[in-house]
Amino acid sequence: MIKKFEDYISRVKKFSSQDSKEIESFKIEFLGRKGVINDLFSDFKNVPSDQKKEYGQKINELKNLISKKYEDLKLGVKQSSKSITEDYTKPGFPISSGSLHPITTIKNRIINIFSKVGFELSEGPEIEDDWHNFTALNLPKDHPARDMQDTFFIQQNPDILLRTHTSSVQVRYLEDNPPPLKIISPGRVYRNEAISSRSHCIFHQIEGIYVDEKVSFADLKQMILYFTKSMFGKSKLRFRPSFFPFTEPSAEVDIYWGLETETDHRITKGTGWLEIMGCGMVDPNVLQNCNIDSEKYTGYAFGLGLERIAMLIYQIPDIRLFFENDVRFLNQFK
Ligand code: PHE
C-alpha cells in the first residue's frame, strides 16, 4: 500500500509541463471526480483499522503535493506568457528625429562655401556697446546714418544696445588681430522695424571681411561671384552704388533669380531681382579706429541676410514662418 503512494508521489514530482491543457488533464487525473485521490478515499473502508490513520495522512500528503504542483505549474505558464508580452527581440518603437532649422542649414552652407577659400569663423555678442556697433564703424553720435538701422537701446544705459548688424564683430576682430585677416561672422541681429512678410525685428546676417595689402574692389566682386555660383548655381549680378558709413565705395548686390514661381514674384516684388547683400571697401577710418595702418592695408567687407537667401532657396513667401516654430513648417526640412 505504501508502495502505491510512493509511485504516485514520484509521478507527481516528475510531472512537468508548460502546456495549460496538459496541466489541466494532470489535475483531472489526480483530483477529478473519478481521479486518483477519490479512488484512494473510496478504498479507505477496505483499509485495516490499525493502518487507517497512516493511510489518511498519506492521502492528505499526496493531495497537498498535487495541489501545490498544480498551482506552481499554472504560475509557470502565466509567467512565461507574460514574458511573451515583454519579448525583447521585438523591434522598438520608432523614434521621431528632429532636424536643423532651415536658417541653420543655410548658415552652415554659407560657412562651408567661405571656409573653402580661407575665411575663418568669428562670433561676437548680441548685446553690444555703442562703440562696436556704431562709433568705430565711422558712425559717430548724431550721425544721420544711424537712422538707417532702427535700434533697440537698453533704457537704463543708452550706450548698450542690441546689435543692429554683424558688422560689430569686424570691429572686435580688427581690434584684436593684426592683418592679414579673413573672417566671416554669422549671428542674430535686431532692428526696431514694422514686422511684415519681408522683414522682422530679429533676423540673421553673415558678415565677411578681408584685410590685407592691396585688396581691391575687383577681389570683392570675384568673391561674391564665387559665392553666388556656389550657393545658387546662378551668378547674374547687379552692383548698385550705395552708401554705408563703414565702407567707401559701397554697393548693394542684387541677384537675378527669375520669375518662375508665384513665390519668386512675391519675394522679388515682380522684378525677378533680389537684393542679397551690402558690401564695399572698408573705410580707412574704420581701420584707424581699430589701430590698423590704413596706408598699408585695405580691405573689403560684406553683409548678407540669411532669411532672404533661405526664402529664395526654399521658396518661402513669408519671413515670419522662420520664427513661428510651427512643427508642420519645420518638418518639411528633415
Ligand atoms: N552692415 C550692413 C547692414 O546691416 C551690411 C554691410 C556689411 C554693408 C558690410 C557693407 C559692408 O545693412
Explain what you see:
With 334 residues, this protein is α+β, with helices and mostly antiparallel strands. It folds into two domains: 2-85; 102-333, 2-Layer Sandwich (BirA Bifunctional Protein, domain 2). The protein contains twelve helices and ten strands. It has helices at residues 2-14, 20-31, 36-43, 52-85, 102-115, 130-133, 167-176, 217-232, 262-267, 284-289, 306-314, 327-330; strands at 120-121, 127-129, 153-154, 157-162, 181-190, 202-212, 237-244, 247-256, 273-282, 298-305. Strands 1-5-6-10-9-8-7 form a seven-stranded mixed sheet, with helices on both faces. Strands 2-4-3 form a three-stranded antiparallel sheet. The longest helix has 34 residues, at 52-85. The protein is rod-shaped and about 130 Å long. Bound molecules: phenylalanine.
Topology pattern, helix = H, strand = E: HHHHHEEHEEHEEHEEHEHEHH
* Bound molecule kinds, no repeats: phenylalanine
Instruction: Note the main sheet.
Output: 7 strands, mixed
- Please give the radius of gyration in angstroms: 42 Å
Strand and helix map with partners:
Blueprint: H1 2-14, H2 20-31, H3 36-43, H4 52-85, H5 102-115, E1 120-121, E2 127-129, H6 130-133, E3 153-154, E4 157-162, H7 167-176, E5 181-190, E6 202-212, H8 217-232, E7 237-244, E8 247-256, H9 262-267, E9 273-282, H10 284-289, E10 298-305, H11 306-314, H12 327-330
Parallel strand pairs: 1-5
Antiparallel strand pairs: 2-4, 3-4, 5-6, 6-10, 7-8, 8-9, 9-10
The structure holds phenylalanine.
